[in-house]
Amino acid sequence: MGVLLQQWAALAATLPQRVLGLVGWLAAMALLFGVLERLRPVRSQRFLRSDLGVDLAYYFLSGIVPAFVVAAATVAVSWVVSGWVPARFMAAVAQLPLALRVALLIVIGDAAYYWAHRASHALPWLWRFHRIHHSPTELDWLVNTRAHPVDLMVARVVPLVPLLVFGLRQPGLRDMETVAALYLTLTTVWAFFVHANVRVRLGPLEHVVTSPAFHHWHHHHEAGVPRDCNFASLLPVLDRVFGTWHLPRDRLPSVYGAADPLPPTLAGQLLSPFRAPPR
Ligand SMILES: [Zn+2]
Ligand SMILES: [Zn+2]
């Protein structure tokens, strides 16, 4: 507990720098995706849309809250791992070639995310939180950040647990901490990209890595098309293996959103999971 309080105090002390960093990131992402969305839009949408303010609030919440939750989860899971996973196993993982450890981190991390995300659709009490992410009827890059803190917690903590248990994140493995930081940065930028209002198809690469078309179908609300599809963050092969892949070659969804409407304000949306009936 003492370790966690120290980490939280350190995080709290760096909050001003963190907020400044988030402002910088926001400017960079707005520039990059703002230009892309003007050059090749899926459909013409207003940049200054009505719920822009709410999504900006979600952006800052998403940039601050998970760090505290992930620190708590890391301390708790590491404590369990140190008691239950043999030190010899951890040492053996540390000896594996870096390339293999990186591949394992990506596959195990994304597989865990896939199941956490699929559970967020399948379990009514998790859907109450996740449906906020599915509420927009128009997609753009900033919709990526629209997520309830509880939803974010599930998405961040579930992949972290197997990585700690399998020794791919462990004290002393400095190279893996660098890899994990790069992986988080890459998946964050990619998550903005796959939500963007851009008409970009990646050809054969769409079998290897997720794309805007892939994730736009995850947000579709078309009648007659399977509703729960394309859960992976980075590796679409997971959806192929588990039977949830849906990616027409020649078209994008015509309707986005979720059935149940949400309150328009941030406070109303954050409280809605505790009030609304499950789907
Ligand atoms: Zn979803
Ligand atoms: Zn999404």
From TrEMBL:
Subcellular compartments: Endomembrane system
Q: Name one Pfam family in it.
A: FA_hydroxylase
Instruction: Give UniProt keywords alphabetically.
Output: Lipid metabolism, Membrane, Oxidoreductase, Transmembrane, Transmembrane helix
Q: How does it sit in the membrane?
A: Multi-pass membrane protein
Keyword Oxidoreductase part of the UniProt annotation? yes
User: Might you report a single GO cellular component term?
Assistant: membrane
> Can you name the source organism?
Scleromatobacter humisilvae
- Which protein are we looking at? Sterol desaturase family protein
User: Cross-referenced PANTHER family, in alphabetical order?
Assistant: ALKYLGLYCEROL MONOOXYGENASE, STEROL DESATURASE-RELATED PROTEIN
